[in-house]
Amino acid sequence: MRGAIEIAADVRGGRVRALQIVEEALAALVRDDLVAVTRVLADRARAEAAAVDATVAAGGDPGPLAGVPYGVKDLFDVAGLPTHAGSTLYAGAPPASGDAEAIRRLRAAGAVLVATLNMDEFAYGFATINATYGTTRNPHDPSRLAGGSSGGSAAIVAVGVLPFSLGSDTNGSIRVPASLTGVYGLKPAHGSLPMAGVFPFADSFDDIGPFARSAAALKLVCEVLGGAAIDGSGLRIAILGGRFRENADPDALAAMAEIAPDAPVIELPDIARARSAAFVITASEGGTFHRAALARDAMAFDPATRDRLLAGALIPRGLYDEAQAFRAAFKARIAAMLADYDVLLAPATPTTAPEIADPRIVIDGALSPARADLGIHTQPISFLGLPALSVPLRRPGRLPLGLQLIGRPGGEGALFAFARAIEEKGVVGFSPPPGVYQGEMV
């Protein structure tokens, strides 16, 4: 599948029909061997594509994403379908009365929704190990995890079936799978992209964002979702040290040194405490949201999810309030420290994708569950509410690994500008999995 910008240009120019592009995507989706897809929306996709073609035939402009097929994580409302959030618990729920706001904006820009995509149940995990739909596999090595909780959204873009997709990120659920599958993924500044019609996990941290195979395509989708152009200039760079250098792949450390050899290394205080507070807030909000369903039918939950939600539901309110108070003070303290910088560099994941047969990674010298600890470098950034763009190091023939470009609130423009600069230098960029189209993807 060609890239989003190329497809949209050809559809708008009348050189290819949107329906042709969509039929190619649908044919590939039904052959899904990565366990990335939960539902193929063939009838809806054909109707949307036909509407785009009709607009072009009438001399109109369908929008900047004309005819571009995409999928969404299985927690976005899709009109006429129940919103599963990766769980059988809601398989019989009433259908959504309308689309999520993000889907509505993409449709208005000419994009065509073709599928819902696999995830950890209720977005609680970094692995996309789903008891109902299965484990999403990494297209670079199907014996390895794609990461999560937006693993289906990342894998389907990495394998080239769709030019972009949408996921959600609470503590790293976009950045982790982007890093492990070798694509670009953005967690925006908290609250900056529309959350209406998205099944919640933890409101304090939940955000949506896109995956794509180039910085330019990701930027275009973000502009459509946010309703405004993104720009950036005057880039002042720093590298995050301390816990961000511990448990980091040597290749990530070397890449950061190559990208910004003269940048200062900044150590943020209390990062371990910040991550602990993030766990408390996430677990408490998730457990509280699902408390009634747990009381009604706890055995309907994925066992791995159920135990964590039950524990979260039992967290005392005073402990949650203490974590939120620490968060407010911590954010103010870090904002003052970072005021002089536009982009901070950090690893996106501590390692490349672990094996499905043994989903553990080494943290502080000991084996730890990947489902919990792949987000060791992303969770503190969510805690701060900062935007973070995961960019793939250029590693042809090797397992993918990503870096986080972290900005100030509202500073996504600087992140995209810097991503394009290091993309042009060849340091970062999409490296197709074996057997995937090797040409330019924009």
From TrEMBL:
Residues 27-226, 317-415 form the Amidase domain. Signal peptide: none annotated. Pfam families: Amidase (PF01425). It comes from the Bacteria. InterPro entries: Amidase, Amidase_dom, AS_sf, Carboxybiuret_hydro_AtzE. PANTHER family: GLUTAMYL-TRNA(GLN) AMIDOTRANSFERASE (PTHR11895:SF172), TRANSAMIDASE (PTHR11895). NCBIfam families: amido_AtzE, PRK09201.1. This is AtzE family amidohydrolase. The lineage of its organism: Bacteria, Pseudomonadati, Pseudomonadota, Alphaproteobacteria, Sphingomonadales.
